[in-house]
Amino acid sequence: MPMKGGDGDGYREIDRWERGVGWIAHPGETMQRASHALVGDDGGLWVVDPVDAPDLDALLAEFGDVAGVVVGLDRHKRDSAALARRYDVPVYVPQWMTGVAAELDAPVERFGSELADSGYESFRIRDSDLPPWQEVGLYHPEEGTLLVPEAVGTVSYFCAPGERLGVHPMLRPVPPRRALSGYDPERVLVGHGAGVSTDAGAALRDALDNARSNLPGAYGRALRELLS
Question: ω into residue 131 within 30 of 0, thus cis?
Fold first, then answer.
């Protein structure tokens, strides 16, 4: 199984709800890179950290016209520029995120505490030089949708046995409690794996509270999978 990409066609749909949908473009890859499309209060569709896939346009058309493409993590440029050019929209990048805009072959718009008129609030999850990591979270307070591009995930290499949601392996020693503990979402969407839509607030609290104590189990699981 390749870490990224692969020969498989199509995509696997995840996280569908009334105002959005997610997909994994290469279902057989180890990284399970997840992308999402969010319907904003403005009626536009906001595509976050996308990996392109055959027939993706038909999926997005179910939810409306694309208003913009969003980069949520400095390492998640993915196919953002390609989709922005295809839909003739800008790529939206947080005002404070550096080293991303110049690498995008598409028009760029900056956003601050709210993603345009989408109704999604934005907040810094991490902004560090060591390791290099700039990540923005998106939250819709009325809908209860929280999108976390990288700090937490549901793929096996993020999670200790028994966890539904796990902190990124590099962040387990210093979990992002300050950034995320104030949220009690209805659903948590992540950048790696399918999201959590049942008791999502409890899953998020458990992930943050137990990140350190479950560290041996998480690292042991990842090592076993690496060696298998």
Answer: yes
Domains of the chain (ranges; CATH) run 12-112+120-227 (3.60.15.10)
Q: Would you say 80 and 104 are in contact if contact means Cβ atoms under 8 Å apart? A: yes
DSSP-derived letter for residue 32 is: -
Report CA-CA distances (Å) from 213 to 18, 153, 172: 36, 17, 9
Bridging pattern class, strands 166-167 and 152-153: antiparallel
pTM above 0.85, yes or no: yes
Nearest-CA neighbor of 51 among 192, 195, 167? 192
Q: Could you report the per-residue pLDDT of 192-207, keeping only the tens digit for each? A: 999 999 999 999 999 9
Nearest to 222 by CA among 5, 75, 31, 24: 31
- Return d(Cα 206, Cα 159) in angstroms, integer: 11
Distance CA 107, CA 226 (A): 39
Q: How far apart are CA 51 and CA 25, in angstroms?
A: 6
Supply 92's token pair.
Answer: 């939206």
Element (H, E) at 187: strand 187-190
